Amino acid sequence: MTLASRQPESDRRVRVMLVDDSAIVRGFMRRWIDEDPRVDLVKVCSDGQQAVAEVAATKPDVIVLDIEMPNMDGLTALPHLRRLAPDARIIMASTLTTQGAQQTVKALSLGAADFIAKPQASAMGGVDSYRRDLIDKIVALGQRAGLSRSGTAQSRPFNLRPRSPVLAPASVLVIAASTGGPSALPVFLGPIARRIEVPILIVQHMPATFTPVFAEKLESVIGKRCREAVDGDVLAPGCVFLAPGDKHMRVARGPAGRIVTLDRGEPVNFCRPAADPLFESAAAAFGNRVLGVVLTGMGHDGRDGAGHVVKAGGRIIAQDEATSVVWGMPGAVAAAGHAEAVKPLKDLGALALRMLNGEAA
């Protein structure tokens, strides 16, 4: 039995700073935050310059930071805010455009914890999914920030799944990530991608305009071609495919071998793409030759799919809580008893290489 995870501080309200130049957006966000008893809006700023001046005194747990603003934009303000409020988690508010995607991916590489792609200001009031996603992200990140600041984290037990010392080498590597994933994936894959000869399939929760930009960024870091999957792609040795935004990615058997299939089926765990369909279909197509890795992320996507992998004889490992931005997805996998190992991010790559070769965790 290994100790990890924590109990949330249910009585503590998350302190939020909102930074946006649009009065319409500020109005909607202020109302949404004020209506939720878990959060407390402690400061509203109209540009990055004001946020930088106020953040040290405000002591927020979460900063919702618009990217495009006058005087000082979000990208310029980001490093100053991180320096002045190192415990705060920053959510970048981006537009659903290619430029917004490029700016957001850059912000994530500079230390932003997460992002949210906001609709046009005129449509804000009618987008329930945006409101839910925003509040969920604020609460999840804010609870983690508060626990880190107060040092009151408590552990609860989970059981690792023991396996025999030597197993069959894996034929595919499937990876799930969400909040914190754009920063974790390069750290995990960067040192090992060029040494992996099996197909690598990745689900990162992102909108459709963001995944092509992120695939390019990931390729530049791991030194191996990475692109959005296309329906019918053959899983050739060493290929790296990222699930396109707004499409589930699955594995199927085709005339030329295993292939990728894409679909716009119903969201799974409120997500499309989701990790569960990928993991479950990989288990059906590859049997006991699947290695699944679950990285940082909100919710429990990947938990049920990991169960299918394990049932088929495959193997699962997960990122630990200390190095996760949010320990939702990997924590759910560990709590369900599907993981052979729960390790810090810096150790997961070397472990994955050994397990791909059939070695013990």
Layout: helices, strands, pairs:
Layout: E1 2-4, E2 14-19, H1 23-35, E3 39-45, H2 48-58, E4 62-66, H3 74-84, E5 89-95, H4 98-109, E6 114-118, H5 128-150, E7 156-158, E8 172-177, H6 181-189, E9 200-204, H7 211-222, E10 227-228, E11 240-242, E12 248-254, E13 257-263, H8 275-286, E14 290-294, H9 303-311, E15 315-319, H10 329-335, E16 341-343, H11 345-356
Parallel strand pairs: 2-3, 2-4, 4-5, 5-6, 8-9, 8-14, 9-11, 10-11, 14-15, 15-16
Antiparallel strand pairs: 1-7, 12-13
Instruction: Quickly give the CATH architecture of the largest domain.
Output: 3-Layer(aba) Sandwich
Q: What radius of gyration results from the CA coordinates?
A: 20 Å
Oligomer: single chain
Model regions low in confidence, pLDDT < 50 over at least 5 residues = 1-9
How many domain modules? 2
Quote the beta fraction. Answer: 15-25%
Note the overall shape. Answer: globular
Q: Characterize the main sheet.
A: 7 strands, parallel
CATH topology of the largest domain: Rossmann fold
Order of helices and strands: EEHEHEHEHEHEEHEHEEEEHEHEHEH
- Sequence of strands across the biggest β-sheet: 10-11-9-8-14-15-16
Briefly note the structural class of the backbone: alpha/beta
Query: How many beta-strand runs?
Result: 16
Mean pLDDT: 91
State the CATH superfamily name of the largest domain. Methylesterase CheB, C-terminal domain
Range of helix content:
25-40%
In the CATH hierarchy, what is the class of the largest domain? Alpha Beta
Q: Total number of helical segments?
A: 11
C-alpha termini separation? 15 Å
